[in-house]
């Protein structure tokens, strides 16, 4: 039964010592420890959150970069395409122009050839007419009796003609 | 392999020396008290166990043959308005038999008023130590009479142990706290041992049972409570130490702290629940009221008895196993018993932690019930 009877002296010491412990440990141990723990947890959490944020920012930045790159690429493609088109057009235009000029030159050449030809023909005609007149005049002037002499004369004149 | 065994060897040596010391310091008493007849042997064993569990006015370290190595402790008596100081050694003669001193004497581990002052001392001196049955009866009567007569504030073995552990706790935890004051740093040394326990008490005991918004106010109490019980449970397992947490005055005191904290923090919902339990048919309410009011008081009683019984029972088991070898006077049993008691002591370390946890857990649960706002 002695074991189950609380001892007054020990009880009083226990109350005093425990209150003292509560006060001293509360003030000099638990508060700094709990505050320190809290501070550390908050620091870690903030650090983790900011790391997460940095990661997100980095990802966003990367995405932005990729977007920019894609944009630049497509822009370049567009420019290239445009330039190609322009070049082709220029080429086409040039070709067309050239063929136009060529056909015009051809036409001009044809026309001038025609004119030359006509002029030549006209000249030939006048020459033939003049020659015929000449020959006729010479034939008429000689009036030889024999056909032989007439023929020889004609040949002579024709040869003369050829020499021209 | 070599390196391992080399580092383990000193540890092993220390452990074996501790075990030897433990069994030696405990058993030497028994050996001294059990050298006569069989009946007396068993009685001696019970005395030996009770002696180690009960409080004492001196700190008995070890008995070498017939030489008792004890530290006398100061005695403080508050008798009718005057404080008296003695040393406990004043109450024993050179043969370690109790004698009367200044009108007081220690009888059966209790300080009582000696009848007729020095006259009693003389009669004791004549009867040479082990007093007759008449003497015992007189002392017991005296004791029951004297109980309310004067206040005994002596620094007993338990009080000394209490003060030592309090100093130890303050030294340990202020040194741990120092590491937190210099801003954020990774835990180190002693801090990394205690920090997980503190975090566990905060997160898994206080926060869970009291609520995340109110637990902070009770953290100093719960931490002090837990570490007080843990330190003293573990210290109680060391050889020659006091059985502080196995003393009902100590456990009662701790339970009363929880009791008063619970009652003083009781919110409206708590008292409503006790006095006029909602959701119960009207005729049943007075009955529930009685049950609930009884419940207020059974909580501290269960707290008191659980810790007291667990620790005391553990000590009794260890001491009984050691005592067995002496009662049966067998060397083989002594060896086996010592080994077995070492194993039980290891289990007791676990019990020491579990009881500290359980006491704190239940305290936080009771506080949690009291501070609950009742929105459930």
Automatic annotation (TrEMBL), chain A:
Q: Where in the cell is it found?
A: Cell membrane; Endomembrane system
Q: Which UniProt keywords apply?
A: ATP synthesis, Cell membrane, CF(0), Coiled coil, Hydrogen ion transport, Ion transport, Membrane, Transmembrane, Transmembrane helix, Transport
Q: Which GO terms describe its molecular function?
A: proton-transporting ATP synthase activity, rotational mechanism; proton-transporting ATPase activity, rotational mechanism
One protein family per Pfam: ATP-synt_B
Q: Which CDD domains does this chain map to?
A: ATP-synt_Fo_b
Q: Which residues form a coiled coil?
A: 34-100
What is this entry's stated membrane topology? Single-pass membrane protein
Q: Does the keyword Transmembrane helix apply?
A: yes
Does the UniProt entry include the keyword tRNA-binding?
Answer: no
> Where mainly located?
membrane
> Which residue ranges traverse the bilayer?
12-30
Q: GO cellular component terms?
A: endomembrane system; plasma membrane; proton-transporting ATP synthase complex
Q: Which SUPFAM superfamilies match?
A: F1F0 ATP synthase subunit B, membrane domain
Can you state the subunit structure given in the record?
F-type ATPases have 2 components, F(1) - the catalytic core - and F(0) - the membrane proton channel. F(1) has five subunits: alpha(3), beta(3), gamma(1), delta(1), epsilon(1). F(0) has four main subunits: a(1), b(2) and c(10-14). The alpha and beta chains form an alternating ring which encloses part of the gamma chain. F(1) is attached to F(0) by a central stalk formed by the gamma and epsilon chains, while a peripheral stalk is formed by the delta and b chains. F-type ATPases have 2 components, F(1) - the catalytic core - and F(0) - the membrane proton channel. F(1) has five subunits: alpha(3), beta(3), gamma(1), delta(1), epsilon(1). F(0) has three main subunits: a(1), b(2) and c(10-14). The alpha and beta chains form an alternating ring which encloses part of the gamma chain. F(1) is attached to F(0) by a central stalk formed by the gamma and epsilon chains, while a peripheral stalk is formed by the delta and b chains.
Q: Which family is this sequence assigned to?
A: Belongs to the ATPase B chain family.
Its biological purpose is as follows: F(1)F(0) ATP synthase produces ATP from ADP in the presence of a proton or sodium gradient. F-type ATPases consist of two structural domains, F(1) containing the extramembraneous catalytic core and F(0) containing the membrane proton channel, linked together by a central stalk and a peripheral stalk. During catalysis, ATP synthesis in the catalytic domain of F(1) is coupled via a rotary mechanism of the central stalk subunits to proton translocation. Component of the F(0) channel, it forms part of the peripheral stalk, linking F(1) to F(0). The b'-subunit is a diverged and duplicated form of b found in plants and photosynthetic bacteria.
Which named protein is this?
ATP synthase subunit b
Q: Which organism is it from?
A: Roseivirga misakiensis
């Amino acid at each position: 039964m002695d074991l189950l009877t609380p001892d007054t002296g020990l009880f009083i010491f226990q109350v005093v010592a425990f209150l003292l412990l509560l006060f001293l440990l509360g003030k000099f141990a638990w508060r700094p420890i709990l505050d320190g723990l809290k501070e550390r947890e908050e620091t870690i959490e903030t650090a983790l959150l900011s790391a997460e944020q940095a990661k997100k920012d980095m990802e966003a930045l990367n995405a932005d970069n990729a977007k920019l790159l894609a944009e630049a690429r497509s822009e370049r493609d567009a420019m290239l395409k445009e330039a190609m088109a322009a070049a082709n057009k220029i080429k086409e235009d040039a070709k067309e122009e050239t063929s136009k000029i060529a056909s015009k030159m051809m036409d001009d050449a044809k026309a001038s050839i025609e004119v030359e030809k006509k002029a030549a023909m006209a000249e030939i005609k006048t020459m033939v007419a003049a020659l015929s007149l000449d020959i006729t005049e010479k034939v008429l002037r000689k009036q030889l009796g024999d056909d032989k002499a007439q023929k020889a004369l004609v040949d002579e004149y024709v040869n003369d003609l050829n020499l021209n | 392999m070599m390196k391992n065994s080399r580092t383990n060897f000193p540890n092993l040596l220390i452990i074996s020396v501790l075990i030897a010391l433990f069994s030696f310091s405990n058993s030497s008493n028994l050996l001294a008290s059990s050298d006569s007849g069989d009946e007396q042997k068993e009685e001696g064993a019970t005395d030996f166990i009770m002696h180690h569990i009960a409080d004492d006015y001196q700190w008995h370290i070890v008995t070498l043959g017939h030489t008792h190595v004890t530290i006398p402790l100061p005695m403080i008596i508050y008798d009718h308005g005057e404080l008296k100081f003695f040393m406990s050694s004043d109450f024993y003669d050179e043969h370690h038999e109790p004698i009367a001193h200044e009108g007081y004497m220690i009888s059966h581990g209790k300080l009582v008023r000696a009848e007729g002052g020095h006259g009693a001392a003389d009669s004791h001196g004549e009867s040479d130590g082990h007093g007759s049955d008449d003497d015992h009866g007189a002392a017991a009567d005296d004791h029951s009479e004297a109980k309310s007569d004067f206040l005994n504030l002596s620094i007993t073995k338990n009080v000394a142990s209490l003060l030592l552990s309090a100093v130890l706790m303050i030294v340990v935890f202020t040194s741990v706290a120092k590491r937190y004051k210099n801003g954020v740093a990774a835990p180190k040394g002693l801090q990394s041992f205690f920090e997980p326990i503190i975090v566990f008490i905060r997160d898994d005991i206080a926060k869970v049972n009291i609520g995340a918004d109110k637990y902070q106010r009770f953290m100093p109490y719960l931490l002090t409570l837990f570490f007080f019980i843990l330190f003293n449970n573990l210290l109680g397992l060391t050889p020659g130490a006091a059985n502080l947490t196995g003393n009902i005055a100590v456990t009662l005191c701790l339970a009363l702290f929880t009791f008063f904290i619970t009652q003083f923090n009781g919110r409206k919902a708590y008292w409503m629940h006790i006095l006029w339990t909602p959701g119960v048919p009207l005729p049943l309410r007075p009955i529930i009221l009685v049950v609930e009011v009884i419940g207020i008081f059974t909580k501290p009683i269960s707290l008191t008895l659980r810790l007291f019984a667990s620790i005391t029972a553990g000590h009794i088991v260890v001491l009984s196993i050691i005592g067995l070898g002496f009662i049966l006077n067998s060397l083989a049993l002594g060896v086996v018993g010592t080994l077995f008691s070492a194993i039980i002591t290891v289990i007791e370390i676990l019990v020491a932690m579990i009881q500290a946890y359980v006491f704190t857990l239940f305290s936080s649960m009771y506080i949690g019930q009291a501070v609950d706002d009742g929105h459930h």
